[in-house]
Design brief:
This protein has 413 residues and is an alpha+beta fold. 58% of the residues lie in helices and 8% in strands.
Length: 413
């Protein structure tokens, strides 16, 4: 219910932004207007975008940047710098200065090179680079949300620039409704940015947990295609690009909870892999952080919590919704469980499950501690699962195929 209310509020206010920005400006009265000034004014008005177009472009820009913050901010800055005249380049905002967008796009080129070469690289060499890209995406998103989005979302200028308005005639010139509208729009723009970024950031998380380079390239290509589509539709017509962006924002708000869990999941995995935490980790019965690998009751997948026991002594999962609300406990399904030793992370598998699904996902800090985990929680031992099981089976088959075996000696009677 809360998600639907927030979705309706953001979309309604985005629509109000477009409608309000598209409203015609009041006509300015002058005592004498020469034909030359009329032609100059017409030329300048044609060269300047209307407030409605600026609002549509702002919505599209915020959405596109949220999908890939560093690429988006660097690309927008480079575009503004290239379109500006040399005399006006010094007055451009910080993201349109060469000292920012040139290093930003250089980092993007290095990431692109890593993605192209990474399809043929071993997983052990590529994953650390993917982890670094994961943290780069977070840092650039924080910078964009705090310093870029407010600048783009502030599209309304002062209503009175030396002209007498109705508020001035009433002695209320200090009231600027457009400034108030900016104060209302900027927080909503930041919320929309964060919602789209959360969903787009899931791609980086999936790349971390995916062992296939081809899958990584396909995910990156899908994200780049979406950004290109927004840019192309905005260049074709600003309102079409804004409509597409509003659809993306609406879908992102609906998926915000799932994206938040996946993002936290990726943070834990990336930090464990980057810091090699499994080398200094010990399993404790009272501190066993895990993720749900499948939905149990109303608790969704990827929820972060701790493995514990309910009052009856059964295995249970304790968690806090959104990591901050009151603690809750849900009992795991009845049956026996084993620890699955994987290539990148272990799992807890229910042996009686007919589909062989995992019930819990253990962070990479548990690598090498599978036996200890099984003993602490009194599970039914450890078994190889996933790619590790396949690799071991392939190795045994190859060793048996190519190993030299001594032929049995036949005793003659």
């Amino acid at each position: 219910m809360k998600t639907h209310l927030s979705l309706a509020a953001v979309l309604w206010l985005c629509g109000a932004l477009l409608v309000g920005a598209a409203a015609p400006e009041p006509a300015k009265s002058t005592n004498a207007i020469s034909p030359s000034s009329v032609s100059a004014t017409a030329a300048s008005s044609n060269a300047t975008a209307t407030p409605g177009v600026e609002a549509a472009q702002a919505i599209s820009t915020i959405t596109g940047v949220a999908i890939s913050p560093l690429l988006g901010v660097g690309g927008v800055g480079a575009w503004k710098w290239w379109k500006a005249t040399p005399a006006r380049r010094a007055a451009l905002p910080w993201y349109a200065q060469p000292w920012f967008w040139m290093p930003a796009l250089s980092v993007i080129m290095l990431v692109l090179l890593k993605d192209v070469v990474g399809t043929s690289m071993p997983t052990a060499f590529k994953k650390p680079l993917d982890v670094l890209e994961l943290f780069e995406n977070k840092i650039s998103a924080l910078v964009a949300a705090g310093a870029f989005v407010p600048l783009v979302a502030t599209i309304f200028r002062s209503a009175s620039d030396g002209d007498t308005s109705l508020l001035q005639s009433m002695g209320l010139a200090f009231i600027d409704p457009l400034a108030f509208l900016n104060v209302l729009i900027v927080p909503l723009a930041v919320v929309a940015f964060l919602a789209v970024w959360l969903v787009a950031h899931v791609i980086n998380v999936l790349i971390i947990i995916s062992p296939f380079g081809a899958v990584d390239a396909a995910l990156k290509a899908a994200r780049l295609f979406l950004m290109t589509t927004i840019a192309a539709t905005t260049l074709a017509h600003p309102y079409v690009g804004a409509l597409l962006s509003l659809v993306i924002i609406g879908v992102s708000l609906l998926l915000a909870g799932w994206a938040f869990r996946m993002t936290f999941f990726g943070n834990v995995f990336a930090w464990d892999l980057l810091t090699l935490r499994h080398r200094r980790f010990t399993v404790a019965a009272d501190k066993t952080p895990v993720f749900l690998a499948r939905r149990i009751g109303k608790v969704p997948v990827r929820t972060w919590g701790r493995l514990t026991q309910d009052p009856c002594g059964n295995l249970a999962f304790a968690y806090r919704p959104w990591l901050v609300f009151a603690r809750r406990i849900v009992t795991l399904p009845e049956g026996r469980f084993t620890v699955g030793r994987g290539l990148l992370y272990p799992e807890v598998v229910q042996t009686s499950d007919p589909f062989g699904r995992s019930t819990l996902t253990l962070p990479p800090r548990y690598l090498g501690h599978e036996e200890e985990f099984s003993n602490v929680h009194r599970l039914d031992g450890v078994q190889d699962v996933g790619l590790l099981k396949g690799f071991k089976a392939l190795w045994c088959w190859a060793r048996g195929l190519f190993a030299a075996r001594a032929l049995p000696v036949v005793q003659s009677s």
